[in-house]
Amino acid sequence: MRLSLALGALMNAFSRGCVVRRVSGVSQAPAQSVIAAKHPFQVDLSANKLYPWCACGYSKKQPFCDGSHKKAAPGLSPLRFTVEEPKTVWLCGCKQSKNPPYCDGTHKEELVQKAELHTCPESTT
Ligand code: FES
């Protein structure tokens, strides 16, 4: 029964778009991404350059990583990506996109719009 409850909570977190990963150690809580912004960031990207998209939501240099995950969310790491040609893209700021690092419109959903900034949507209920 306990296992099914824990599994249910974990599946609920995934279905809400929260990034949940186990970290080493028994007493440490799983790290979760938080909403950095309720909108995407328009960014001009260069070809073949490695970009670290902030996956935790704690970076002060959104939408890119500034290393904040090391203290704020040690179980998370940035999503590193490149593009093959120069282009302008919209990178996710809410950290709930199902197509990271790109915005997929999830930020428009009530779950994100009604949540507090710097929280995971599941923790606002
Ligand atoms: S900003 Fe996250 S889905 Fe649009």
TrEMBL record:
SMART domains: ZnF_CDGSH. Keywords: 2Fe-2S, Iron, Iron-sulfur, Metal-binding. Transmembrane segments: none annotated. Residues 38-75, 76-113 form the Iron-binding zinc finger CDGSH type domain. GO terms for molecular function: 2 iron, 2 sulfur cluster binding; metal ion binding. Its cofactor is [2Fe-2S] cluster. It comes from the Eukaryota. Signal peptide: none annotated. One of its GO terms (cellular component) is mitochondrion. This is CDGSH iron-sulfur domain-containing protein 3, mitochondrial. It comes from Microcaecilia unicolor.
